[in-house]
Each structure stands twice: as C-alpha cells, then as structure tokens.
Design goal:
The complex is a heterodimer.
Chain A (H helix, E strand, L loop, with lengths): L28 E4 L15 E11 L2 H4 L9 E9 H4 L10 E7 L3 E3 L14
Antiparallel strand pairs in A: 1-2, 1-5, 2-3, 3-4
Chain B lengths: L7 H6 L20 H15 L5 H13 L4 H11 L1 H9 L1 H7 L8 E6 L4 E6 L8 H4 L4 H4 L1 H9 L1 H7 L9 E6 L4 E6 L11 H7 L2 H5 L10
Helix pairs in contact in B: 4-5, 4-11, 5-6, 9-10
Chain lengths: 123, 221
C-alpha cells in the first residue's frame, strides 16, 4: 500500500474507507464482547462505551497476526469511554475520557442504546 | 549499519554474530541485534534480486530525518490561519494534508482539536503507532512502557511531569492509537500571536505540542 517513493506531493483519496452495511453509528452505546478465540487473541469484555466515529473497513488484525490477508475487512470504530468506568481508582474529574479503536465483531449493542441509521456518517 | 566501530562482515566471518548482551535497539556501540542482522540480510537479498537499491533506502532514511518531522507544524499553521482548512483537516486529516502536497502514505489521520474545554493527548498502548509521515520518528518516551501504561490511567499526572497542568474544568481526552488510525493534536493558537508570520507560528509548534503532552507557548519578544 505504501508507495516506495514518498514525498512527491501526490494527492491521495480520503482516509475514510467506505463501511456500508455496518452495525453501529455515532452515538450508539456498545459493550465489548466476551471472546476467547483460539490463539493469543482476546477481548476486553468488561467495558462499555459510545461510538465516537466510524473509521471505515480494515483488514481483520486477528487474521493478519497469523499471516492471513485479513479478509473480509471489518468495520473499525472509535469508541469513547469514561475514564472512571475504565479505572475504578481514576483520580481525575468525571469528565475525563479515553477513546480507542475497536472492530465491529468485538462489539455488542447495549440494550436500547443503538439508534437507526445515522445519515451524517460517511460510508 | 549505524555503528561506526563495528564491522558486520568481519564479525560474520568469524561466526560471532550472536551476542546475548547486545542492546535490543538504539545507537549503542557493540554487535548488532538479531533484528538488525535480519533486517540487514533482508536488505541484501532485496538488493540482490534488484527489487530495491541501497540508494532508495538511504533516501528513505533521509526523508524520515529531514522531511517528515517538519510537516506537522506546516499543516497546523495552515489550520491556525485558514479556518476552512481547519474544518477540512478535522473532518478528514489525510485528504486535507494531501491538499497541501503532504502525502501521508499509508497513514490514516485523525486530527483532534484542543479547545478551552478539551485537551487531547495521544498514545499507542499496544506498541508505538505514531503519525510518522507527519511528525517523523516517535521520541523514546512515547515508546516507553511508562508513558504507554500511565498516560491512559493517570493522564493528568503524566501531563504534569511534562509541565502541563490542566484545571479540572478541562476534559482530558486520551486517544489510544491502537489500530489503523493515526492522530495529531491541533493545539490552541496562543493569544498575542496575531499577525505573526508562518515561520514564527511554526516555531511554537514543537513535536510534543502535536502529541498533546504540552501546549504551544508564545516566547517573550
């Protein structure tokens, strides 16, 4: 994917790869699935958050880690968590947040937290 | 190899390539690590097969040192001086950089804006993901276990160690660059810098301001 000769001032298309047919939209409340697939793979299933952004579809890192092509691609989201939910001993104010990238197949909806389609999101 | 005192080929002939005490990385003197040897062997194979040349690799290293580290401040100065550009940068970082002729290559960029209400800071808890094509190579502390573990758990304490103290009414927003996206912070432009040249503005925009561990400060003039 990376061009060998960089810095030529060449323009590239948008960073956002399309993610049609995705399961979640911005503002949806989600939780991490409890998953223990074979090999050195597992999910942080204790955590709940809110979809901050749809990043697009990317090769599945669980497959890349074992030398496969990562297809089919999976939709990647940025999920926002409240620090006090993540760390019971968090010492900062309640308003502090942490955001991280989570793939769709690691997420489950929180009951009542998923809205209909969000027309503002690309994809 | 960067080690001036070490003759890779001489060592190789004598079969002493493996040294358990070799540093894992860095510029220290001594024999190369296993990874350095593998990387060197790979380079030699690729050169032998005619797929890349030593000149291409040298040029690539030069770009990392001499071009990439200066791109970030150019992009942020533009965002400070052109509100429409800033909007495009926040919406789609890579496309906005491409507009300026800054090709981020494989990096997909999310620009996050500091405001009086929100301060952003970037980390990669899993390894050392970093917007290299925008800021150059990451600093050593960015890759350290200490920073990676602590900035997600006690970001305010870590920021304080960098000399950045934020009041409680400012949200600290930590971004874990743990998958396919890369991040850059758009700091707040300091007051009193109206009418400054792009060069003057760029001077304040150090690497650390764009990672979010500090904020730009106008020097006394």
């Amino acid at each position: 994917m990376t061009p060998r000769t960089p810095g030529g001032g060449k323009t590239l298309p948008s960073t956002y790869t399309p993610a049609p047919g995705r399961r979640f939209n911005v503002g949806d409340r989600v939780k991490i699935k409890r998953l223990f697939p074979p090999g050195h793979r597992r999910t942080p299933y204790y955590i709940r958050g809110v979809i901050e952004r749809v990043c697009g579809a990317f090769p599945n890192p669980e497959e890349l880690a074992y030398g496969f092509a990562g297809e089919p691609r999976r939709v990647l989201y940025r999920v926002r968590f409240e620090q006090r939910h993540v760390w019971p001993d968090y010492r900062g104010p309640a308003r502090d947040i942490i955001e991280m990238e989570i793939f769709e197949h690691w997420l489950d909806p929180v009951a009542g937290g998923v809205r209909a389609d969000d027309p503002d999101q690309r994809g | 190899m960067s080690e001036q005192s070490f003759d890779y080929y001489a060592k190789h002939q004598h079969g002493h390539v493996h040294d358990e005490h070799a540093p894992a990385a860095g510029e220290k003197a001594g024999p190369p690590s296993e990874h350095e040897i593998m990387s060197r062997a790979m380079q030699e194979l690729l050169e032998e097969k005619g797929l890349i040349t030593a000149e291409e690799i040298r040029r690539r290293m030069e770009i990392f040192d001499e071009e990439f580290p200066y791109r970030g401040s150019r992009v942020i100065v533009r965002a400070w001086t052109d509100p429409a550009f800033k909007e495009r940068l926040l919406k789609d970082g890579k496309a906005a950089c491409a507009e300026m002729g800054v090709d981020l290559e494989a990096d997909r960029l999310i620009a996050v804006e500091n405001t009086p209400e929100v301060h952003n800071v970037i980390v990669c808890t899993l390894c050392s993901c970093y917007p290299r094509s925008l800021l150059g190579m990451p600093p050593t502390w960015y890759k350290s276990d200490n920073y990676r573990a602590r900035v997600v758990h006690e970001p305010r304490a870590v920021l304080k160690e960098f000399g950045t103290v934020l009041p409680d009414n400012v949200t600290v927003r930590v971004h874990d660059s743990n998958a396919d996206m890369r991040y850059v912070v758009v700091p707040m432009r300091p007051s009193g810098t109206e009418g400054w040249s792009e060069e003057q503005l760029a001077e304040m925009l150090t690497r650390d301001t764009m990672v979010g561990v500090t904020v730009p400060r106008a020097p006394l003039r």
